[in-house]
Amino acid sequence: MSGHFDEELSSLLPFSVHRCNSELCLPHAMYLLLAALIFNCLFIVCLTAPQDHVSTEEVVSYSRFQLWSITPHNKEGCDFLRKIQRDYDLDVWKESRSGNSTMDLLIPPDFQMELKLRLADAKISYVVTIRDVQTVIDNANSNVTIRDEISKAQGHNMDWNNYHRLNDIYDYLNYLEDSYPQIVKLITIGWSYEGRPLYVVRISSASSPDTNPAIWIDGETHAREWISSALATYIIHQLVEVDGNQGLLSNVDWYIMPMINPDGYEFTHTKNRLWRKSRSRPGKFCRGVDLNRNFGYKWGGLGAGRNPCSETFRGPAAFSEPETAAVSEFIQSKSSKIKVFLSFHSFGQLLLLPWAHSHPAVYPPDYDELLELAKNAASKFVRFKFSVGNTVELLYTASGNSVDWAKSIGIKYTYCVELGNIGIYGFILPPSLILPTCEDFFPALKVFADMAATMTN
């Protein structure tokens, strides 16, 4: 045993140690003791090493990062900007679709001087819309401090003057089910990659739930888009806790999932405010899948990244992620009842219609009906003026997205809602704009509910 065993132990030592008769060599007993100590240390390291689903990343600072709004003047300028984005691997906050439409890029401090020179040489103008991204993050990500007596009196910590951590949101959903059991049911449809529950809130005043036509709403597919889950929870609050909105429940059931990506959402609060994807490990070096490229309709096509490090990485297969698999299974079980499908994102002030998988754009046969309903809903917005149209024409290609998939399984009215920006904040919408955004959007729900109520088959 000792000969082969000793050789393997020797290979693990940080210096060469062999049994011999020379005074320069360690005595055999000391050698074995040292080797045993090293093996003990390795054993402890293995036991205490982070598991695959536990994040070990450092906190990301965006100090001195800037957001530039860059305006090309022709197609050549657009192509030049896309090359710049690829060359420097820049985060795109807003895509440029044609000449004279701006592209918003997040510029790290190390590249700023070089890119100023390159843009000047190309005669392309730009405006710095955020001079220090971390400063905006710090101002917008203030801690929620509600006095204990207030939260105890109302039974939860939720409000819409702050962005809340996941525990506050989930506690609020449980509070509603406990307080309003006659209309609220909290359904666990699965578990995230890191083991967090995936909740759908069913709101129904029907004597037999699942008999009315229904509306689906979801938020937080992309982790950094905090306003999407804030709006979804605000809608839940209005439907359940505000008596004046009971008419919205009379002929329609609601399925609302405010948090599709709970792992990513928590990561944006603890490590990286601008994280977009899920937190699974599809590749050796990069984490996360873009859940809005992981649905099964036209999966893997245009606008879906193949590289696991890409912000739009599609995943190794359609529905490879536990989050999208759970959502798709639940929606398919209710697809005969769901008539309207709304997926909240940010930002851009856009109401987007299928299809998103092809350039130039292609349209479903009933596109005009979808467009008419969307325009009626958008007409209710006062503070935020929305553009309405096909995803590819107004934004970009996005194969494997949830809205196209929902349309493909027979849900008639399906929309992606890109919420407000107010021009300068992008994904970092400050808490002071949560309520204005929610209050502006809510009246449009009656347009969708009225349509759904007429669709009994």
From TrEMBL:
InterPro entries: M14A-like_propep, M14A_act_pep, Peptidase_M14. It holds the Pfam family Propep_M14. Residues 162-452 form the Peptidase M14 domain. The keyword Nucleotide-binding does not apply. CDD domains: M14_CP_A-B_like. The keyword RNA-binding does not apply. GO terms for molecular function: metallocarboxypeptidase activity; zinc ion binding. SUPFAM superfamilies: Protease propeptides/inhibitors, Zn-dependent exopeptidases. Gene3D superfamilies: Metallocarboxypeptidase-like, Zn peptidases. One of its GO terms (biological process) is proteolysis. Its cofactor is Zn(2+). One of its GO terms (cellular component) is extracellular space. The active site is at E418 (proton donor/acceptor). It comes from the Eukaryota. Keywords: Carboxypeptidase, Disulfide bond, Hydrolase, Metal-binding, Metalloprotease, Protease, Signal, Zinc. PANTHER family: FI01817P-RELATED, PROTEASE FAMILY M14 CARBOXYPEPTIDASE A,B. Belongs to the peptidase M14 family. This is Peptidase M14 domain-containing protein. It comes from Daphnia sinensis.
